[in-house]
Amino acid sequence: MAASGAEPQVLVQYLVLRKDLSQAPFSWPAGALVAQACHAATAALHTHRDHPHTAAYLQELGRMRKVVLEAPDETTLKELAETLQQKNIDHVLWLEQPENIATCIAFRPYPKEEVGQYLKKFRLFK
User: Fold this and answer.
1) pLDDT (tens digit, 9 = 90+) per residue, 37-52?
2) Could you say which residues form the signal peptide (predicted)?
3) How far apart are CA 94 and CA 16, in angstroms?
4) Half-sphere exposure of 54 (CA within 13 A, CB side)
5) I need a surface site. Which of 40, 44, 88, 94 has the fewest CB within 10 A?
6) Phi and psi of 33, rounded to 5°?
7) What angle do CA 40, 45, 71 make, to 5 degrees?
8) Distance CA 54, CA 34 (A)
């Protein structure tokens, strides 16, 4: 909890979306990609709804912050998901059905500085 007079903790929900889905041979339209990010974000918020960071994030809907990054391909997205799992970083890997295609990772809300190191390691965050 922030001390009296201190700035409140900045919570951010990071999403990592596959860039290759917008390119040939997939060529998914922008709306389909946005839908994948929305599905993943909603699933992560629901899955981690009892975490104090998620509750705090949802208290001020007008102040929610999301950062959307891109992974070059499915392999990179799955490697990131595996690393996050090993490091106990709460997230959801969204799989589009019925094809079972990994499309997006959504983190639960985290303090801004807490997960950047994992994203930098995958060169998703400059």
Assistant:
1) 999 999 999 999 999 9
2) none
3) 10
4) 16
5) 88
6) -70, -40
7) 35
8) 21
3 state SS of 32: helix
Identify whether 109 is preceded by a cis peptide bond (ω within 30 of 0): no
- Distance, in Å, from the CA atom of 78 to the CA atom of 49, rounded to the nearest integer, reads 24
Tens digit of each residue's pLDDT (9 = 90 or more) over 78-100: 999 999 999 999 999 999 999 99
Q: Which sign, positive or negative, has the C-alpha torsion 82, 83, 88, 89?
A: negative
pLDDT of residue 6: 63
Tokens of 61: 């809907």
Domains of the chain: 11-124 (3.40.1490.10)
Confidence of residue 115 (pLDDT cuts 50, 70, 90): confident
Inter-residue contact 68 to 17 (CB < 8 Å): yes
Q: Measured between alpha carbons, how far is 37 from 22 in angstroms, rounded to an integer?
A: 13
